[in-house]
Design goal:
By secondary structure, this protein is mainly alpha-helical. It has 6 helices and 7 strands.
C-alpha cells in the first residue's frame, strides 16, 4: 500500500494538511503560504549542513537569485494563440501552457544534490521526492535526523512564523 491515500498526514501547514514533504515543497514553490521561491533558496543555503545538498558552485545563486529567473516567450503576430519559449523554442498553443512551462524547473540549473547518492536536481521538490521515495536515500526526512530532515524543520518553522506575522498584522488592521 504505497499510495498517497494510505499515507498518513505528515505535514500540517497552517493552510492545509499534506501527505508528503514533497507535496509541501511543491505547495511552497508555487508561492503559497507567503513564502517566495527566493526565500526557499535563501533558507536552503542558511541551514547548518546545506553543503550536503547544495552544489558549491550554486550557493551564491541560490541565496541571491533563486526564484527570480524569467523565461520569455515570442508570440506569433499572425496567430495570437501561439507562444514560443525563447530558451528551448518549444511552441505552446495557450498562455496557460506557456506559463506552466515558465514556472517549471525545466530551464533552471541543477543546484541541489542528494546527500546519499549525489543525484542532482533543479528544485527542492525534486530532491525531496527522491529522498522520500528512495529506499537507499532516506536522509532522515521523517524525524529531522538527516540534512534534508533538518532543512524541512527549518522551512516548517519559517512558514509557521510567517503565518503568525500575518495573523498579527490582520489583528492590527481589522
Amino acid at each position: 500500500m504505497n499510495t498517497r491515500y494510505h499515507t498518513p498526514v505528515v505535514v500540517l501547514l497552517p493552510t492545509r494538511p499534506l501527505s508528503t514533504y514533497c507535496s509541501m515543497m511543491l505547495h511552497l514553490e508555487e508561492g503559497a503560504c507567503h513564502i517566495t521561491t527566493h526565500e526557499l533558496g535563501s533558507v536552503a543555503t542558511s541551514a547548518v549542513d546545506s553543503d550536503l545538498y547544495v552544489l558549491p558552485q550554486w550557493r551564491e545563486y541560490l541565496h541571491n537569485h533563486y526564484g527570480y529567473e524569467r523565461v520569455g516567450f515570442d508570440t506569433d503576430t499572425e496567430n495570437e494563440n501561439r507562444y514560443e519559449c525563447t530558451e528551448c523554442r518549444v511552441i505552446f498553443f495557450s498562455i496557460k501552457q506557456a506559463n506552466q512551462h515558465a514556472k517549471s524547473p525545466v530551464h533552471k540549473p541543477l543546484v541541489f544534490k542528494c546527500p546519499g547518492c549525489a543525484k542532482q536536481y533543479s528544485a527542492l521538490s525534486g530532491i525531496l521526492q527522491h529522498v522520500e521515495h528512495s529506499t537507499a536515500c532516506k536522509e532522515g526526512v521523517y524525524g529531522g535526523t538527516g540534512a534534508m530532515g533538518r532543512l524541512l524543520q527549518l522551512l516548517e518553522e519559517r512558514v509557521r512564523g510567517r503565518r503568525a506575522e500575518d495573523a498579527r498584522e490582520e489583528e492590527d488592521f481589522p
